[in-house]
């Protein structure tokens, strides 16, 4: 098997740089939008700290304990046994930080989903996936820790009575396979809701980048699973033959997972770099659309009229008693009394509400839609009065 120390260090360096830049960008974006930190931000910090621990283990292992390298034949048997023992210790530490980092990356993304889609059809699947992710973290930590008894029997094979009841292949297969399936589900969970949106070209690239990064994490999971099953755990070149590919792809997976969980929050930075028009999700100008049977007109809505819940969409139908006086009708009603008129109240560029939210660049559903139904007969009466 070829030596992989250089590739391992390169993978850690490149991917960790990307993760660090994404984390810094996330903090800057939060300050730009002046949005209070939420659960997803704290989950992301835990994931990032864990990936730092994982990268530190890999770098130390590759630099001093032959990760990805062939142990020279000139090394004495005692020194070689010590190298193998240290490799198992570092694997034990790296496996814990790897699992914690990936688990909290999942919780970060799912918390973001919940904040955006908690009133949509995928709210129940989000809750289910958050529960499964939390359970997966606990299960993996338990299996990694107690696969051997006593625990130190995993790296010290000379402990009297020590035994490993669960082989490494079973541990990795039992935890990495569910982790891969969960990544696929989390990746496709918001697809239907996202494709319902009308996005500009810049936003389409952003969504595509998010799914590409998620796909990279899934592909890396496949490689980790594959090499966990086919590598030789009994090799006398354990750091090269068994651990090298696992920790190489583990570094790619865990670091890119942090980048993927930060990417949706970097929109204010992208707007600053690419310009607001490329990333804008809506226009602040009034809009109007008319058909033979329906007519839509836009009206500004003041900040005072905003409902307390800024994330909800409210649809109100006026009953017969709430129909306004004919003198308040839009002039279009008098000119076209045979049409059904639907008035939509939305934001305009000059409204107080628009200026209030201009500083907030995070993802929120801000606009309420109010449908007012006006009786056509009232419109006819208005025409008669004018005559």
Automatic annotation (TrEMBL):
Tell me the classification of the organism that encodes this protein.
Eukaryota, Fungi, Dikarya, Ascomycota, Pezizomycotina
According to the entry, every stretch annotated as the Rhodopsin domain falls at 26-271
Q: Which residues cross the membrane?
A: 6-29, 41-62, 96-114, 126-152, 172-195, 207-227, 247-266
Q: Which UniProt keywords apply?
A: Membrane, Transmembrane, Transmembrane helix
Task: Output this protein's name.
Answer: Rhodopsin domain-containing protein
Query: What Gene Ontology cellular component terms go with this record?
Result: membrane
Q: Where is this region: Disordered?
A: 299-365
Listed Polar residues bias regions: 344-356
Sequence similarity: Belongs to the SAT4 family.
Q: Which PANTHER family does the record cross-reference, listed alphabetically? A: INTEGRAL MEMBRANE PROTEIN-RELATED, PTH11-LIKE INTEGRAL MEMBRANE PROTEIN (AFU_ORTHOLOGUE AFUA_5G11245)
Q: Where in the cell is it found?
A: Membrane
Topology term for the membrane:
Multi-pass membrane protein
């Amino acid at each position: 098997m070829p030596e992989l120390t250089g590739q391992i260090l390169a993978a850690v360096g490149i991917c960790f740089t990307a993760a660090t830049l994404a984390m810094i960008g996330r903090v800057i974006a939060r300050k730009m939008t002046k949005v209070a930190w939420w659960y997803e931000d704290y989950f992301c910090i835990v994931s990032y700290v864990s990936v730092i621990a994982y990268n530190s283990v890999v770098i130390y292992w590759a630099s001093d304990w032959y990760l990805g390298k062939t142990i020279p034949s000139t090394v004495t048997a005692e020194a070689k046994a010590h190298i193998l023992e240290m490799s198992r210790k570092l694997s034990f530490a790296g496996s814990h930080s790897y699992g914690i980092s990936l688990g909290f990356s999942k919780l970060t993304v799912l918390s973001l989903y919940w904040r955006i889609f908690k009133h949509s059809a995928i709210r129940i699947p989000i809750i289910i996936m958050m529960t499964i992710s939390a359970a997966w973290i606990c299960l993996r930590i338990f299996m990694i820790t107690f696969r051997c008894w006593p625990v130190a029997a995993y790296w010290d094979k000379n402990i009297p009575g020590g035994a490993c009841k669960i082989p490494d292949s079973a541990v990795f297969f039992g935890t990495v396979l569910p982790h891969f399936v969960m990544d696929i589900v989390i990746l496709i969970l918001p697809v239907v809701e996202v494709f319902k949106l009308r996005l500009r070209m810049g936003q389409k690239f952003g969504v595509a980048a998010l799914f590409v990064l998620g796909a990279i994490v899934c592909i890396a999971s496949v490689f980790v699973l594959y090499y966990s099953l086919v590598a030789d755990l009994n090799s006398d070149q354990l750091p090269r033959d068994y651990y090298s590919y696992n920790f190489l792809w583990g570094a790619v997976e865990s670091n890119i997972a942090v980048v993927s969980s930060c990417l949706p929050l970097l929109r204010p930075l992208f707007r600053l770099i690419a310009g607001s028009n490329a990333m804008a999700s809506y226009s602040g100008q009034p809009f109007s659309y008319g058909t033979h049977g329906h007519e839509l007109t836009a009206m500004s809505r003041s900040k005072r009229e905003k409902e307390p819940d800024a994330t909800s969409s409210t649809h109100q139908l006026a009953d017969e008693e709430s129909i306004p006086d004919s003198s308040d009708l839009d002039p279009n009603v008098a000119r076209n009394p045979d049409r059904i008129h639907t008035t939509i109240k939305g934001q305009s560029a000059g409204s107080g509400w628009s200026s209030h939210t201009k500083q907030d660049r995070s993802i929120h559903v801000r606009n309420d839609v109010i449908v007012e139904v006006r009786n056509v007969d009232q419109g006819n009466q208005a025409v008669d009065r004018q005559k």
